[in-house]
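User: Quick sanity check before I run a bigger batch. Here is a single chain. Can you write out its predicted 3D structure?
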Amino acid sequence: MKNIFKDKTTIAKVSATLSIFTLVAYHYPFFDHVVNHVEKGFNGVFITIGLGILLLALNYFFYYLVLFLGRIVGKCILAFTFIANAGTLYFINTYEVLVTDKMMGNVFNTQYSEASGFFSWIALLYILFLGVVPCIYLFVRKFEYGSARKFFINIGASLAIALGVAFANMKNWPWIDRNSTEIGSLLMPWSYTVNSFRYYNSVKKSNRKEIPLPDATIAKPGKDVCVLIIGESARRENFSLYGYNKQTNPLLEKDSVTALKANAAATYTTAGVKAILDHQPTNKLYEILPNYLYRNGVDVLWRSNNWGEPPIHIEKYHTAKEIDKMYPGSDVRYDEILLSGLSQEIEKSTQDKLFIVLHTTTSHGPTYNKKYPPEFEVFTPVCNTVEMSKAVPEELMNAYDNTIVYTDYLIHSVIEILKQNPQRRSCMIYVSDHGESLGEGNLYMHGVPMSMAPKEQIEIPFIVWTSDNELKIKDLEEVEQYHVFHSVLNFLGIESPIYDENKNIFCN
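Assistant: Done. Predicted structure follows.
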């Protein structure tokens, strides 16, 4: 043992050692999922062992290839891989997440202020013991790269083993295919590498030139203002407006609002916000609501304390920090900053039709207790840890419920601001981008693919208020996020060839 770092070995042995380490250190969640979902008996054991051998062979192939061709650069690539493996494993174990392309999108689009809330001392231990330790071995251990002949022999042998195992499990491919999303999201380093490429490929597609919609006209006279509040991670079942047993909406229950049931089109912010602003379900980048209205003569104001928004092409786009500079006084840490100077902005608008979007971040985890001012901590005790799986369930729920109490206050405040501007007929629509898991089924937060997403991540609130008592809302059993586009057109009196009456919530 004393000479382990002094004596030279072969690249094959180093690759084998790292492959075994990867299998043992990073794949407990993977095998835990397989064992709990595979059929019992010999065939289940055969699948489990086969997947283990396949992982060993593929990782051996990867490590050997990178080290032989990359030399010192290859070592740096693998060092990054081990650090990333450790960090990914921490998130999987702590938050019970699946590392899909959607989840990678959340990672890449999360601001530092949000990302920092996920880490703890436990994360540092993961990085040190499961990330740094193999890096030390990789850089200190001396080994010979060998000849090109040995390279092709070892590479070929590892591929042959992988293909042999895959062929032997031919009859089990239907099971693997059915569970491909789950098991693929737990493989290291394939989960975050492959899904990162998948995410950026989807971004590339979404960044295509925006497809313009047919021109619209302002058909109805009068001064109107519509405020759209986009919620973050707000699930419907925790709103007392929908029957929740804790009073999380004390103000809205007195505001004569209409609470419609809605389902989210996606379980992550970028897709959820896009659906709210789109005129129909589509993977194409059509002109979204604020851009469309702005191009057709409506005064549009967008205020954001969040991220993940589609390209916004308007004059008045303001972040929370910009609002703070324009109207100092509110605490920039909380979403109330979006209300600063809002009444003045409504008053000074010179156009008859005004559309305002407030993009909040109120219920974004895991640090729910930091999303609201202290005076809104109605339910106690609250969870203070970012390790949600280790939190006391009641404390986690209390912290989340307090974010809904704060949301109640924010929506109510917008309604009060609109009441203070009686010169305009006004409307407020609140809809969340997606829901949130709080431990149900051992899932936390959001981002689970729609094909397997639980109801907690899909069922969202859709809350409406108008100053016009004569304007009634349809008795709809359920609505979609796409109802927003057509309902706003209807309220503002905008005629358009793409208007869909079936997606309008107002009675004409």
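The first strand starts at residue 9 and ends at 10.

User: Great, the batch can go ahead then.
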